[in-house]
Amino acid sequence: MGRAQWFTSSHSNGAGECVEVADAGDGVLTRDSKQRPGPVLVSSAEGWQAFIAGVVRGDLAGTE
Question: Where does the record place the DUF397 domain (predicted)?
Answer without folding.
Answer: 4-55
